[in-house]
Write a structure and sequence with these properties.
Elements: E1 22-26, E2 33-41, E3 45-50, E4 59-71, E5 77-83, E6 86-92, E7 95-101, E8 104-109, H1 122-136, H2 140-157, H3 165-175, H4 180-197, H5 206-238
Antiparallel strand pairs: 1-2, 2-4, 3-4, 4-5, 5-8, 6-7
Helix pairs in contact: 1-2, 1-5, 2-4, 2-5, 3-4, 4-5
The protein binds zinc ion (ZN).
Zinc ion binds at residues 27, 29-30, 34, 71, 73-74, 76, 136.
C-alpha cells in the first residue's frame, strides 16, 4: 500500500491500513496522535472512478474498504473510507502505459481536528495539550493535574491574587472578570487536580478526567474563543454601508 493522501494530495499519516489491528493517527477528540484499535473493516468492494476527463470519461474500477478504529484514550470511533492504491492501463492513440493512483482517504468522520485556536495564550494551549496527552496515554490523575494547572494559568493571566488557587478563583469571582458559573466549574477542575496530584485523595477515573478536560475546554471557549469569534463577526457587519 502506498502513501496515503487526502483529496488535496496532502499526505496523511495513517500508517498501514490493510486491516492491521493497531493504527496510530491523530484522534479528533484527544487531539494528539494515539493508538487506535481496529473495531471493524468491511469487505473490499469495487467502485467506478472516472480517470479521464469530463469530455472523455474513462471509468476504472478501484478497490475501496470501510474501516472503523477506536481511540485507546477516549474510546471514540473514527470511520474511514479508503480507496486503495491501484494500477491501471492508460491508453490513448499511440501510447499505452500503466498509471498508479495512491491510497486515498476519501472520507473520515469525525474530521481531523483543526489546530488549537490562535487566540489561546501559549501557556493555556500548552497545559491543555499536555492534559490531553495524559488522557490519551490512559493517565487520568496526570490529566486532572494538568487541567488544574491550566485553570491556574487562566487565573494568573487574569491577574488574580490569593495564596492558593482556591483564593485566586474567589478573587476572580469578586472582581467579576469571569462569570460565577465558570468560577464554579473552575473549582471543580481544581478539585479534580487536587485528587490527581495528592495520594491522600481518591484517584481519578478515566471518566472523571475526561469530564474535567471537557469542562476546561468549555471554560476556555467561553473566556477566550467565543469573545474573539464574536468580535470578528461583528466587525464584518459594521462594514455594511449605504449603496454609493
Ligand atoms: Zn481519542
Amino acid at each position: 500500500m502506498g502513501q496515503i493522501v487526502d483529496s488535496n494530495g496532502k499526505p496523511i499519516v495513517f500508517g498501514e491500513v490493510s486491516g492491521k489491528q493497531q493504527e496510530v493517527f491523530e484522534c479528533s477528540v484527544c487531539k494528539v496522535r494515539t493508538q487506535h484499535g481496529l473495531v471493524q473493516n468491511g469487505p473490499t468492494f469495487k467502485a467506478k472512478v472516472n480517470t479521464g476527463t469530463d469530455k472523455k470519461p474513462v471509468d476504472v474500477e478501484f478497490p475501496r474498504v470501510h474501516y472503523i478504529y477506536r481511540c485507546c484514550g477516549c474510546q471514540t470511533d473514527t470511520y474511514f473510507l479508503i480507496q486503495q492504491q491501484h494500477t491501471f492501463r492508460v491508453s490513448s492513440p499511440g501510447i499505452s502505459q500503466n498509471a498508479t493512483w495512491p491510497t486515498m482517504v476519501l472520507h473520515r468522520y469525525p474530521r481531523a481536528i483543526p489546530e488549537a485556536h490562535d487566540v489561546l495564550p501559549k501557556g493555556i494551549k500548552q497545559n491543555l495539550l499536555e492534559a490531553e496527552t495524559c488522557l490519551a496515554a490512559g493517565a487520568p490523575n496526570a490529566a486532572g493535574t494538568m487541567a488544574r494547572r491550566a485553570v491556574d494559568e487562566i487565573a494568573r493571566l487574569h491577574k488574580a491574587t490569593g495564596k492558593d488557587l482556591y483564593n485566586r478563583l474567589e478573587n476572580l469571582r469578586s472582581v467579576g472578570l469571569v462569570s460565577k458559573e465558570l468560577i464554579d466549574i473552575a473549582h471543580q477542575i481544581r478539585s479534580a487536580g487536587r485528587n490527581g496530584a495528592h495520594a491522600e485523595w481518591q484517584e481519578l477515573t478515566m471518566d472523571q478526567a475526561r469530564n474535567a478536560l471537557f469542562l476546561l475546554k468549555e471554560m476556555i471557549r467561553e473566556i477566550y474563543i467565543t469573545p474573539a469569534e464574536r468580535k470578528q463577526r461583528l466587525q464584518s457587519l459594521t462594514k455594511l454601508k449605504k449603496k454609493p
